[in-house]
Structure formats: C-alpha cells, structure tokens
Prior knowledge:
It is a single chain. By secondary structure, the chain is α/β, with parallel strands linked by helices. It has helices spanning 7-10, 38-48, 63-68, 93-101, 119-131, 145-153, 165-179, 194-215, 231-244, 261-268, 295-301, 313-322, 338-347, 350-355, 375-382, and strands at 15-18, 59-61, 73-78, 111-116, 134-139, 157-160, 182-183, 222-226, 250-256, 304-308, 363-368. It has 2 domains: 7-87 and 203-388, Rossmann fold, CATH 3.40.50.1100; 93-185, Rossmann fold. Helices cover 39% and strands 14% of the residues. The strands form 2 sheets. Strands 1-10-9-8-11-3-2 form a 7-stranded mixed sheet, with helices on both faces. It has a 4-stranded parallel sheet with strand order 6-5-4-7, with helices on both faces. Strand 4, helix 5 and strand 5 (134-139) form a beta-alpha-beta unit. Helix 2 crosses helix 8, helix 4 (93-101) crosses helix 8 and helix 8 crosses helix 9 (231-244). The longest helix has 22 residues, at 194-215. It starts with 6 loop residues before the first helix and ends in a 12-residue tail after the last helix. Bound molecules: pyridoxal-5'-phosphate. The site of pyridoxal-5'-phosphate has 19 residues, from helix 5 and helix 9. Pyridoxal-5'-phosphate binds at residues 87, 89, 119-120, 186, 226-233, 284-285, 335-336, 369-370.
Amino acid sequence: MPVNTFSPFTDASVKHVRNAGRETSRMRPADDEPLFSKQELDKSFATISRWPGYRPTPLLSLSGLARKLNVGAIHYKDEGGRFGLGSFKALGGAYAVSNLLAENPDPSSVTVTSATDGNHGLSVAWGAKQIGCRCVIFIHAEVSAGRERSLKLQGAEVIRIDGNYDESVRRCYSAAGDNNWIVVSDTSSDDSGSDVARTVMAGYSVMTAEIVRQLDTNAPTHVFIQGGVGGLAATVCEYFRLAWGSAAPRIVVVEPNRAPCLFESARKGERVAVDVREETVMAGLSCGEVSVVAWPTLQKLADDFLTIPDSVVAPAMCLLAEAPFGDSPVVAGESAVAGLAGFICAGQDDELSSALQLNQDSRVLIIGTEGATDPALYESMTGRGAASIGRASI
Ligand SMILES: Cc1ncc(COP(=O)(O)O)c(C=O)c1O
C-alpha cells in the first residue's frame, strides 16, 4: 500500500449525477408495478436454497476501515464463495436454466446459449451441466484465457469473437436464431428477452434476501453498488424498498468511466447506449447498453450514479486483501470492488461526500460481487495469490 492508503482514491476523477427522475418517496405508489411478484421471490428463494451446497454468503463488518473513513459502519457482503463459482452471478443464469428446463422431459435435446464476460456464462454453463443440456457460450476478444478455461471446465463450448461484449451479445442472438437454441441472457435490449433476464434477476434476489436477514431491521443508510447492464442494481433497489420501505437506503450505482451506460442514461433521463471503445479492467461491468428490464426500476429508485477510473481498482483490491486496519482480509476481484472504490473516492471529496450525505452516522453496504474469479489476473493486480490471503473466498 502507498504511505497514504487513500491517496489513489483522492486523486481519482469521479463523476457524479443525481438521478433527477427518481421517486422522492420510498413508499410504493399504489399504481406501481413491482419488478418481481411475491410468488417469484418466494420461488427463487425456495428453489435456490435447496440446491446442494447452498449456504448464505457472509456479511462482514469492516469496522477498522469504517473508523478510518469516518463512517458509522461498513457491511461487506462477500460473494466470493457462492456455490464454488466465485460470484453472485451463480444465482442468476443457473436459476434461469433450471426454470426454463424444469418441465422438459428431455433436456439433452436442448442447447442453451449466452454471451458473457465470464461470470454470467459460468453460471449458465453450471446450470446446463446440472440439468444435462448442451451449452454454447460467446465471449469477446478481451475475456481472459483463465475465464475461458473455467467455462470449458463446466462443459461449455466456447466461441470467442472479435469485438466487444455488446457484439458478443449480437452474435449469440444470431446463432440462437439460426440453430433454435435458447438464449439465457442477463440482459435484454427489447421486450423479447425480458422474461429470461427478469428470471436471472429473481435469482439474484436470493442474495438480497440474505442481506435483509443478516441486517434485520438495521437497514444501511447507503448502498454503493456496481453496475454493468443494471440487473443487479435494479434487484437491489427493488428488494430493499420492499423490505425496508421508507427506511430503504440511498442507492449509489457505480460504473467504470469506460462503460458508463447507466450514468449516461440517468443524465439524459432515458435509456441510452454508449460505445465501449476501450475495455475496462472491471470486465463484468464493461457494458454499453442498459437492460430494458432493469432501467424502469433504476430510473424510479436509484438515487445517484458515479463513474470511476480503472486506476482505483487495484488499490481497492489491495486494501481488502491487506486489511491494514484490523478487519478480516477479503479476496475481491476487479468487478467486485467498484462500489467500495466509488464510496472511498466519494468520501475523500468534501463536495461529493456532502452531496451524498456521507457522515459519521452512515452505515454503508458494499456488495463484493466476486472473489478471484480469474486467479492469475488477481495475482497480477494485487501482487499476491488469492489462496495466500487469510480467508480465501473461493
Ligand atoms: C462481479 C460482477 N459484479 C457486478 C456485475 C454487474 O451486474 P449487472 O450486469 O447486472 O449490472 C457483474 C456482471 O457481470 C459481475 O460479473
């Protein structure tokens, strides 16, 4: 760590936009259509909590870091151990596959497909393996060799394309149309894929349900949550309002400045796409288009949007691994730390910190959405092997 642990965050250029379209009250208006019905939420919890190996992931208290950053509490949900796949995404794609094929008498005749930068595809491949169907996964040019290997280990056939994530999504849909495959996507750009993308998000709600149980009535005041296509952030917004109503936390969505589709949509007040010209190291967040399923919820319920530069990612990973203030060391991958990095950057900036109402009474929830899902990359970014860290999370 540098002499001043927080200096990389102090110098970072962070952009902030307040969501002008958000609802001012936390109470659900009578005519509001919820993102998920109660039955859907109950079903995803009942199904996933019966899968072999299910156990809630830990919610850690980073009290040493909280003291240093002058806030009341930092709660860290560590998804690194989720079903041995290393990320919260294990809950989504696999759940959608199981839902789609549960009633199918011959899953071996079915092919599921998806585009991925790693974690979602791994979940789909794992789900396909459990249920016994074929799985074809599209990855883009920058997806690491380690992530490609993990997909193959789950039995997926992997197709690497030239171009970025959004191009891999297009290629996946086109191949599915030609071959009669089922697309299991975590995003949708029109209404046609909405049901599946929503089912994926219903899978994520198991994680939010665990958080609500773990915190009980002690709702956080803020959540800093990383965004790719926005499916996770929308689930967080919806579930926390459902659970905590008027006490629901302020939701701050954090994205890479190289892929700011949620930030730009909030700025324009409508869903807009951005061109991802340069890949961010936060691979899971490298998305140019917001999911149509997620956007209406985010537009109503997300409070703020931040973008952060890649320069703060490795320092945030090292901070969690080194735990210099007496907290448990945590293994967190590149896409997991965006929320934490955004929070620390905001806290180092008086204007932003006051705009976000961060102070000594704040209780901040961070969701560490992945562990070292690419161990070689983790080591190159932090200078240490994930397995050497106190509580390795995979
Ligand atoms: C580790 C990790 N965190 C966060 C996200 C963002 O989720 P969403 O694309 O639903 O916004 C992803 C997406 O792949 C991810 O892999």
